[in-house]
Amino acid sequence: MATGPARDVMAAHPDLPVEHLGDMLLAPGFVDVHCHTEWSLSGGLAEGPGFGRWLRAFLTAMVRSGWSGHRAAADLAVLSAVRAGTTTLCDSGPTGAGVGAATGAGLRAIVCLEAFGDDPARADETATRVAALAEAAGPLVRVGVSPHAPYSVGPVLWAALAGHPGLGGVAWSTHLAESADEDRALAFGDGPVADALAELGATIPRWPGGSDASPVARLAAAGALRDGLVAAHCVRIDADDVALLAHAGVRVAHCPISNSRLGCGRMPLEALAAAGVAVGLGTDSPGSAGAYDVRAEARACEVLHGGVLAPPSAARLVELATLGGARALGLEGETGSLEPGRSADLVAVRPAPGAGLAGDPNEALLRADSEVRHSWIAGRPLLRDGVPCTLDTERIVTEAAEVRRNLC
Ligand SMILES: [Zn+2]
């Protein structure tokens, strides 16, 4: 894209059409660093209190759903994300249905295929599926791998995935240090997370470290942390863990709504930033959070952190929702900022009455009553006057409603 005073840009590109947006706020499209498109229909199906109890109810509901509805769910998630002004997302799921959904929408995405268990033979199978998904992916969609979490993937499979020639160069994501229940499962092999996995016939894998070792320390001891790994949550971390994550080049997806709803705690946002760890915002899924709305996560982030310290400024929150997210995904050279050389991934937001250009534009951009009206990916319209341009909204909603009926 080119940026600058309108007069100069128009003079340099006289062949391009000109569109006047009026009093809109123009910003980089929002970046969702961690979500599950396949779980868009899981809202209200599982509740806590506590992460382990929620996980047990969630897994039970999702296993009961079978696999046929995953594409319909992924399409609905992408529709929600587009309406919310998201132009880039990082998805994790067991089938990779997000590849087709993001490709169909023309959304920029990284879709990580989840792996589970501790059988090293699954690395081959996972790599084969990743290659097939990559074959089907559009030009803006990359395919990666996600060993789901240290309580659901053991060090043997993790190492086999890391050592597999088909998976070394792809994107990696995981869930890490999310809850006290995870700490207990890894330390003692029991508690609510172990109970949740037992329902599926699975046991908690054995990672290195004594009973007081943190999840981050266990992965570090096993050599499982890697440069570019996007770790979601990272709530249960101390100063040593922050240093381990920074040293390894791990990026973090902060999911404040999910962390709040499940009572997991408060991620040490500024400690990670001070250590140089790239942090962005993740929407997770309606199973534990909202509906793929990065601005809602930014507002929740302000509330979550404001109760303890000075809340992050509106400018900082917008940075987390855009460039911070792009950095966390290693995509800052392509998206996340309005700079020459970046792709024209943009969002236009109509500020709420009274919150217009006279006030702080970052604050106005984040307000729930400021409306996402248009978005573009690489200059191509994705959302126009609040209506998705590349998606068949009626079909998606109808198919999703059918799947949801069978879930309840
Ligand atoms: Zn997640």
Describe this structure in words.
The chain is an alpha/beta fold. The chain has one domain (22-407): Alpha-Beta Barrel (TIM Barrel). Helix content is 40%, strand content 16%. The protein is built from 17 helices and 13 strands. The chain has helices at 6-12, 51-65, 70-83, 97-105, 122-136, 155-163, 180-188, 192-198, 215-221, 239-248, 256-261, 269-274, 294-306, 314-321, 323-328, 361-366, 393-407, and strands spanning 25-28, 30-35, 86-93, 108-115, 141-147, 173-176, 230-233, 251-254, 279-281, 346-350, 371-377, 380-384, 387-388. A 5-stranded antiparallel β-sheet has the order 1-10-11-12-13. Strands 2-3-4-5 form a 4-stranded parallel β-sheet. A hairpin with a 2-residue loop joins strand 11 (371-377) and strand 12 (380-384). Helix 2 (51-65) runs parallel beside helix 8. The longest helix has 15 residues, at 51-65. It is globular and about 65 Å long. The mean pLDDT is 94. Bound molecules: zinc ion. Zinc ion binds at residues 34, 36, 175, 232, 284.
